[in-house]
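## tool: complex_structure
## caller: assistant
## args:
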Amino acid sequence: MGVNTAVKTVFIEKLILPFLDRFFRFEKDVLKYPQAIRFGPDSSKRFNIPLEAMKRVQRGEGFVNRRFPAQFMLSILRNMRKSVRSLARNPPAPLRIASKEFLQELDSYAKSLGVSHVGFTKIGPKHVFQDMAVLYENAIVLAMEMDKDRIDKAPSYETMAMIMGTYDKLGIAANKIAHYLRKQGFGAHACHPLGGMALYPPLGQMSGFGFHGRHGLIITPEFGPRIRLTAVFTSIENLPSQKKNEHGWIREYCETCLQCVKKCPVNAILDTPIPHESGKMTYTDRTKCFPYFTENFGCSVCIRVCPFSEGNYAQIKNAFIS
Ligand code: SF4
Ligand code: SF4
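## result:
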């Protein structure tokens, strides 16, 4: 084992893995809150990307011998912990109704933090991960754009560093938004975009940001699938939730495109869906994707090749529907 690898292994074994172990036990505390929205019988099991990736590194697999943007990982871990610890600072009797002006201010504040989309919906138990809970059913859903030039280089260190940087920036933004809500008397539970307590793509779709593509990611008109998602759950009950989603045509378009299916380096995106362990059907075979993903800087080829990543939603829609 080289010095570099030994240092990384010690860093992972002494710092990252014990941290994650403590954190995963700590985040289950949300289950103790009586008003929390708990997982349901058909909830998905969360796939812990940081934990599973670190385990691969520990086994000498994955990116142990490659460059890894560790600076973002430390900040991500700090903000994951902050998202749960800060729950103790929620007001004991949080306000439940927000004015239109406040929601406009909230939107502007989120955008000032680099958030590209702010939407609203309500979460039910089936979108909460197994053995987890979120504090409120009212969801403020957030998306942040991922840089196109770096996505165009996928898979590469530059792409991975940008993605980790986006996770970090969005996690920081979610915590700041939770703090902003608490200062105004509202309850808030920020979830980190890396991991989190709930399935974000359905929340993004229910908020009207876009529609899920064959690769399982939300395709938005502005950036296609070049976004990361997260959510802040809040006591605000009168959030203007989206009633309709106008992007359902994407499902049929994917049947004619299949670029992500053809270009995935390990054929992990399938022609026909397979059952996920929760019983849900999915087109992505994680057992094929994840090893390649960890060995190749988080891959992201399926994002790069998706035609919507060019930001030409209207052109694609017009050509497809006419
Ligand atoms: S991340 Fe890479 S390996 Fe995984 S599904 Fe996308 S293209 Fe395939
Ligand atoms: S690459 Fe094509 S098939 Fe895959 S998600 Fe994008 S539009 Fe759909």
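## assistant note: The chain has twelve helices and ten strands. Residues 19-322 form one domain. Handing back to user.
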